[in-house]
Q: What sequence folds into this?
């Protein structure tokens, strides 16, 4: 797990969990460039293409007889398939059978990869959705037709089942497959960090990665705790609608951009956290902003420890109100804590971390705590 930040920015103060294996470095760089801290725990690994006997067997099936339709679902997957076939001495033959077929692509990246291999696409849906690819195929007579479907990390069971129901001979091409995580302990730590409410967001770039996180939580006896956190204070962000599906089926309100791009994913995350994770404060020295776990104002940002930051956030969400210790326990501690002394300890730590802004948090004798009045 990494915890580095590059400095102030729209995500300064926020800690984001990254579950991606593929393109993880790119996603982490985008987040850190905006000031976020990241916790990296890839929930899956990727099976190397050159060692993938299933891919080679599927490729040989494609070469046994003419293909009628070929489905390209991802650019990286299509390029990987072509490169692997070239390495096996089958590149030209594979391009040849694809050229004689109708090639359809899911979105501009898949289409770009198809064209880069010297082929033209017969169709590509503006929606970039698998369901529209399937709809186009089902509008044709598929009885006895050979259809190759390039998968993108996980089987497309419902997609291929619908083709087979119409009489198609379907060849599933598992261009890259998911394996268990290289560091299972990192995944377990990510689950625990999420459950404790020490993250502000989790990111997912594939549906299998989301499923794997839920399975890791279940194996640790923490699935319901994880879901509670993701339905509450820890927001989930997915690269696209298909990626978000397993989380939504589990009752998690997963967010995703309209277009499945990493840049769009980070913009969606940034907009959400800026809107929901910023609280304007004031003390005797002027205006301050609590952004995630960082206090922003004059000078460098002050990063607060997670629990003191949660206490300050709870007070900021109820400006002008006195919050009792019991209410702060409910609001700032996931699952609550039986000992109200924990609140006193966290308030003391908060005041120490605030330094010259310590008078921001006021004690109301026998009642609780509140924020200082605005100046």
A:
């Amino acid at each position: 797990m990494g915890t580095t930040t590059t400095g102030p920015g729209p995500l300064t103060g926020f800690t984001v969990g990254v579950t991606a294996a593929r393109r993880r470095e790119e996603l982490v760089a985008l987040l850190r460039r905006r000031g976020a801290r990241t916790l990296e725990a890839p929930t899956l690994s990727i099976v190397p293409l050159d060692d993938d006997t299933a891919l080679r067997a599927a490729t040989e099936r494609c070469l046994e007889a003419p293909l009628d339709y070929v489905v390209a679902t991802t650019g990286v997957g299509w390029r990987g398939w072509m490169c692997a076939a070239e390495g096996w001495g089958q590149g030209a033959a594979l391009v040849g059978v694809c050229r004689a077929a109708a090639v359809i692509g899911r979105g501009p990246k898949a289409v770009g990869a198809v064209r880069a291999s010297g082929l033209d696409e017969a169709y590509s849906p503006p929606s970039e959705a698998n369901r529209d690819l399937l709809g186009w195929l089902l509008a044709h007579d598929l009885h006895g037709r050979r259809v190759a479907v390039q998968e993108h990390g996980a089987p497309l069971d419902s997609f291929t089942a619908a083709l087979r129901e119409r009489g198609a001979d379907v060849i599933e091409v598992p261009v890259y497959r998911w394996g268990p995580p290289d560091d299972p302990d990192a995944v377990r730590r990510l689950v625990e960090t999420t459950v404790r409410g020490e993250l502000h967001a989790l990111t997912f770039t594939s549906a299998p990665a989301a499923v794997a996180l839920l399975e890791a939580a279940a194996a640790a006896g923490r699935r319901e705790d994880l879901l509670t956190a993701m339905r509450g204070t820890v927001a989930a962000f997915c690269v696209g609608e298909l990626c978000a599906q397993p989380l939504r089926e589990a009752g998690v309100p997963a967010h995703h951009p309209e277009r499945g791009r990493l840049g769009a994913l980070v913009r969606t995350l940034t907009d959400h956290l800026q809107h929901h994770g910023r609280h304007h404060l004031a003390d005797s020295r002027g205006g301050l902003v609590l952004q995630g776990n960082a206090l922003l104002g004059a000078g460098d940002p002050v990063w607060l420890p997670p629990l003191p930051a949660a206490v300050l956030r709870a007070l900021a969400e109820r400006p002008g109100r006195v919050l009792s210790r019991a209410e702060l326990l409910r609001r700032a501690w996931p699952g609550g804590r039986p000992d109200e002394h924990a609140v006193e300890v966290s308030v003391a730590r908060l005041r120490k971390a605030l330094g010259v802004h310590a008078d921001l948090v006021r004690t109301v004798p026998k009642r609780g705590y509140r924020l200082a009045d605005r100046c």
Observations:
- The chain has 15 helices and 17 strands.
